[in-house]
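Notes from hallway chat w/ T.B., transcribed later so I don't forget. T.B. wanted the structure written out for a chain they're using in a teaching module, and asked if we could keep both sequence and structure tokens in one place. Agreed to drop them here.
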Amino acid sequence: MPRFYSPSRTLSLTLASTMPKGLPEQGRSDFMSGRQALFALAQHLAPSGGKVLMPAWIAEGVYLPFQLAQWEIEFYDLDHLANPKWEQLALQIQSRQFDLVVLVHYFGQVRGINRMIGLAGEHTTILEDWAHAYPDQNWPAPQQGHWALFSPTKLIGTTDGAWLIGPTPLSAQREGAIKRQKWSYLLWQLLYLMASTMLSKGIPVRSLWKKLSGGSYARAYRQLIALTKHPLATSRLGKWLIKHTDHREVVKRRKIQAQYYERHLDNPHLQVLLHTEEEHTLLGFPIWVEDRDAFADYLSEYGIRGQYFTEKWWFSERTTAYEGAWQLMNHHYLLPIHQDYSPADIAHIVAIVNAYRS
């Protein structure tokens, strides 16, 4: 059993060459990153800038592309389970016309898409952000005229890749003068994957792999931001890594681990943030914890690291107007789920979590 549990992506390759079941060919555009895909989408929908409505708790990778594309951005609030506050959202949509409304399927759970389409009306496009999930044969493809985005780099060991699915495929630009930036990004991403793989497998000199993993990830991220306005196609390296991933096992193992968490977590100091019986491939197992810093410190003593999203996830100057989203950002925590974990690994993590006392 490894001594260090982390959601960091690792290299885990197979000889077979496949793509995920449920991922359509028609209407799909493959980009290097999700933010590049969204910049291309913004340019496609309204080249001179449009109006977009998105959750107040939102990733920089969603916010920045629309800002750079000169779109006007407004926010809506969320409840404590990360669902839209539907009544408030309805009033916002009725009060003005939006070109696009973003629905984020936080943590990989489906969020009322039919209700969102009904509220938005026929003149507004919906973008479903599935970056926290992974496509499988049960994935509900976007309805006609709307869009969906997947970001496989958040769940599997690939240097790059994003799938944008919609009414029509969008063209990527030629790399041209940014070729050097592109390959710098891919190099740092590959180093990150190699270091995090060594770390997860308990290879000696852990401090070296941890330092290399953190440093290369930070450098790759800086390059990623710089490339936002340049929607490039998925690299040959990224395509190869994606095709040689065992997608069936990724989906199967993540679902099994989520089910184990749901059935065996038993701690009155934690609240599970699942809201639906529907099964999707989760990024991590979501819980609400009152003192997140204390909880994270407790887990780190046992070599366990989960995820939470705060840095570069808030862009509104107001917090009281979006109190639900603000509280969710400050109290959510994702227990680690990873296709490399064994059943014994997850059982070990659950035992540690159940022993936590606030």
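Follow-up for T.B.: The mean pLDDT is 93. Might be a good example for the class.
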